[in-house]
């Protein structure tokens, strides 16, 4: 159901991240060649030839499926799908254009409360998802998503977040966008029994934003990473081991504000999930499924895990929910889900 306004707030998952309008488009093989693109790659649109691709896919020739995109937005959409109530809030930045209206409406259709800043100097971020056979090629224009303003957030939405957040979810990409917002929220919410969950998201995030990660790390209650990101963290920390279990245990025991334990969750594709807490390392087998598209699997796992946290489930049930969500998303194109399917509580 289309929702023109956001529902009344309740205790929520509040996610901060870059949000994009995904344009999922089936294209012919020569479309990639003509535009100088290699299959199964991601290109940041930084010149006119890349930007023209968006005009091409929107010229009426192609059937486009629009969907909200960006890691944090994907995760809260999955959490919302599982929770089936107005329990998720997305905080980010969009342009002041028609594509922002489409993007916000799509998020609201899924039930997510939207607290997006409207940026006049930059267009809404977007991603052309070019499908050809089994290949999935991405062309991304970050646009307004990287122009989040700290002062505007403090004036407009900070009190809303403080009053309503039970779980704060931070995309690693957002550490580059507005570390002041992350730092402020982390410091305030740490004393309010609010879970802070951070997803590292990419190796380059670990390598180029390492100082920002260390600044926020003492506040992190849960850290989500894949095995490549975890190994990049180990390298930056000068940890000699390449064993994922040892890395997870080491990261879980790094200094932390307050006495609560930190939980580290490391995804490994089809291999078992590694979870470290205190002196214990656990392995959780993934849920087998017929794979259509693995993109979005990590976001889906995070979304399912967040849903479990908000419900107050124990660690085992949160992980179980995350693995279930990932198994359903990989059977779809993109981070989309069968809306008539419910999580089996």
From TrEMBL:
Keyword Magnesium set for record: yes
Active site: 299 (proton acceptor)
Gene3D superfamilies for the chain: 3.30.1110.10, 3.40.1190.20
PROSITE patterns: PFKB_KINASES_2 (PS00584)
Keywords, in A-Z order: ATP-binding, Kinase, Magnesium, Nucleotide-binding, Nucleus, Purine salvage, Transferase
Entry keyword annotation includes Nucleus: yes
Annotated catalysed reactions: adenosine + ATP = AMP + ADP + H(+)
Cofactor: Mg(2+)
Coiled-coil region list: none
Role played: ATP dependent phosphorylation of adenosine and other related nucleoside analogs to monophosphate derivatives.
Family per similarity comment: Belongs to the carbohydrate kinase PfkB family.
Protein name, entry field: Adenosine kinase
Organism for this UniProt entry: Folsomia candida (Springtail)
